[in-house]
Amino acid sequence: xxxxxxxxxxxxxxxxxxxxxxxxxxxxxxxxxxxxxxxxxxxxxxxxxxxxxxxxxxxxxxxxxxxxxxxxxxxxxxxxxxxxxxxxxxxxxxxxxxxxxxxxxxxxxxxxxxxxxxxxxxxxxxxxxxxxxxxxxxxxxxxxxxxxxxxxxxxxxxxxxxxxxxxxxxxxxxxxxxxxxxxxxxxxxxxxxxxxxxxxxxxxxxxxxxxxxxxxxxxxxxxxxxxxxxxxxxxxxxxxxxxxxxxxxxxxxxxxxxxxxxxxxxxxxxxxxxxxxxxxxxxxxxxxxxxxxxxxxxxxxxxxxxxxxxxxxxxxxxxxxxxxxxxxxxxxx
Length: 333
Ligand code: SF4
Ligand code: SF4
Known about the structure:
Blueprint: H1 18-23, H2 30-39, H3 44-48, H4 54-58, H5 65-72, H6 77-86, H7 89-98, H8 105-113, E1 130-133, H9 136-141, H10 143-155, E2 160-162, H11 169-173, H12 177-191, E3 196-198, H13 201-209, E4 215-216, H14 217-224, E5 232-235, H15 239-243, H16 246-257, E6 260-261, H17 277-280, H18 282-299, E7 303-305, H19 309-317, E8 321-323, H20 325-330
Parallel strand pairs: 1-2, 1-3, 3-4, 5-6, 5-7, 7-8
Helix pairs in contact: 14-16
Bound molecules: iron/sulfur cluster (2 copies).
One iron/sulfur cluster (SF4) is lined by residues 7-13, 30-31, 34, 55, 58-59, 61, 63.
């Protein structure tokens, strides 16, 4: 029996799916995608899935949709090249800097979406007792957040080493079976017996689902934070982090420090970035980003707590003000 066979075609997942919401097309719905797998036919829907896995949370039959898409998707050269580049954030930084004179539509889209990049931060104290894992996109596009996280962890008396690299979530979502396994295997070796704090919450979720013992920054913060912060935010829930309950921890931290939270409608509705999806399906991505921005605006609060870099970039792309937990706690640490 295949993973697709537990789908009973009830449609409970449809309204949770961002690509269905913006297209109203069965082809671009979880049910339609699963039907194509059952029938053994190729469908463009398999490629237009954002891999947010919101359908999994909505499904009463427990369809393991993420695994199904991972197994079904075939590797594609452009995506493979982009993923390979993100495995090396320092090289990605140099290439992005060098590409400033180029005008291909792909480069333009990357520059519009990631307006500034920094060289990933290197840091190592003697005998470190915490490894800080920023995640590839965080290291490249939010160096200040990495610095704030580092300051916060050090202020609690820990010695830190930063480990720059990639967890392989994009590889996994895009069907790169062998490479995603290799990346997780490498991290398992590197992290063995160490305390690891992960700064990008969707990476934290992926690594945990793949059997790695990592602590999300929100969990580290909850155990160590004290004092009060006078601030009002609305919260965006990154999709994978939400699936394993990390977004509840974020709210616990907010309560502990007294930050006022004004909830938006459907906080876990996809941000529209979808990892590298914004590059490969810009029209659908833009429509999803538009809906997300409307939900934020309706909350009446401009400052959006977002613990995952791709989501933060999507929110900023729509003119909103994303802020990471590490920025709130680390700046004053
Ligand atoms: S994936 Fe789950 S919720 Fe969606 S149609 Fe199939 S059984 Fe229903
Ligand atoms: S993973 Fe997201 S985009 Fe893909 S079918 Fe499920 S809800 Fe839709």
